[in-house]
Specification:
The protein has 375 residues and is mainly β.
Length: 375
């Protein structure tokens, strides 16, 4: 994204270390993951403790864990918590399923999440068990049942059993696409290989961005173009910069201005803006003469640039910044929730997290607090 972001980024838990030799690779599981369908849960803070509420504001998991600004929502039925500076996992009942002892726990992908302890990386499953022992210098998330891992400075790929599918041999590596190709770096250049390590397109690009909608932006020399998952150059390098495709269009920069192209490389919205974001719910935030507004997929300005900052639409609303305060507009540009917050996250499952004076709360779609500001 080219537009600004305001607050509450995910943070890596910083935890105290204990002897790696004394660390068990099979920590005791105290409870099982609850798979019963339940309402979404939202992290809240009360008197410095982390708990969870449902969309009505009812406390479902009483505040009892260490709150961090990187507190995350549930993923695959579990959530990361911190106790005495150590990271673990809980289920939706608030029961600890992975004893807190890690320096970092990532998001779940393909049913597995990264874990780090004493500079070694491995993976846990959503039942709180070590699925792949901590043994790697670095790892990436699983995608299409394979994950990139670093061994002695080189990157290879393992399967979900921890078996090495492609031996460590690359300088860097990305994520597999649904078509079975993956960007890898060799000799300072990027190319694509398949699931058995055969070159689909030889290393020849300075950069390859992640695939979106079947296309990835690539840099060759000073110019950017696009390739498909088969490694074919479908839009020759010609742009100053190229972004991801979203809703059929990608933001590209030509000279000092940005516009949008379609998957055939045709200029659908001519370069005229200072910055632009991806499309979400039919609209993209664009900056013109220092102010932010929105255009639709035809290039028509549907919300006149007037804001200091603007974010993606989610559930029919987008955060916008007026002066130093953030509020929410609808897709017609009407200010539904007046600017009053120091920062805000997008609406998700009917609620948005907001912040004032380092206190966080949750509002519904009409701006009512379902959980009051607290810290």
């Amino acid at each position: 994204m080219l537009y600004p972001r305001l607050l509450l980024p995910l943070t890596v838990l910083t935890l105290s270390l204990i002897s790696y030799e004394s660390f068990s690779l099979s920590p005791q599981v105290t409870a099982q993951v609850d798979t019963t369908p339940v309402p979404p849960l939202f992290p809240i803070v009360k008197e410095g403790q982390l708990g969870y509420i449902d969309p009505t504001g009812t406390i479902r998991i009483p505040p009892q864990f260490t709150f961090t600004w990187g507190a995350r929502r549930f993923s695959d039925g579990v959530a990361v918590i911190s106790v005495d500076g150590k990271g673990g996992l809980i289920n939706r009942r608030g029961e600890i399923i992975l004893e807190p002892r890690f320096e970092h726990i990532g998001e779940f992908h393909d049913g597995l999440a990264q874990v780090n302890y004493a500079q070694k990386w491995g993976f846990v499953n959503r039942w709180g068990k070590i699925a792949i022992p901590l043994q790697f210098a670095a790892v990436r998330d699983f995608s299409q049942r394979l994950a990139a891992v670093q061994v002695e400075g080189k990157w290879g790929f393992i399967n979900k059993l921890g078996e090495m599918e492609i031996p460590p041999q690359y300088q860097d590596a990305g994520d597999f696409t649904t078509e079975g190709t993956v960007p890898v770096q060799e000799g300072g250049q990027w190319g694509l290989t398949n699931r058995v390590g055969e070159w689909v397109i030889s290393p020849q690009f300075e950069r390859i961005l992640p695939f979106q909608e079947g296309l990835a932006a690539v840099q060759k020399g000073e110019k950017w173009g696009y390739i498909n998952t088969a490694g074919e150059v479908v839009i020759p390098p010609q742009f100053t910069w190229g972004g991801d495709f979203s809703e059929g269009l990608a933001v590209v920069k030509e000279g000092e201005k940005v516009g949008y192209i379609n998957a055939q490389g045709e200029r659908v919205i001519s370069p005229q803006f200072e910055q632009g974001s991806d499309f979400s719910q039919g609209l993209a935030a664009v900056q013109l003469e220092g102010k932010w507004g929105y255009v639709d997929t035809t290039g028509e300005v549907v919300i006149v640039p007037q804001f200091e900052a603007a974010w993606d639409f989610s559930e029919g609303f987008a955060q916008v910044k007026v002066g130093q305060q953030v509020g929410f507009i609808n897709s017609s540009g009407e200010m539904i929730i007046p600017p009053q917050f120091d920062g805000a996250k997008a609406f998700q499952d009917g609620l948005a997290q907001v912040e004032i004076d380092r206190q966080i709360g949750y509002i519904n779609s009409v701006g009512e607090f379902v959980w009051p500001l607290s810290r």
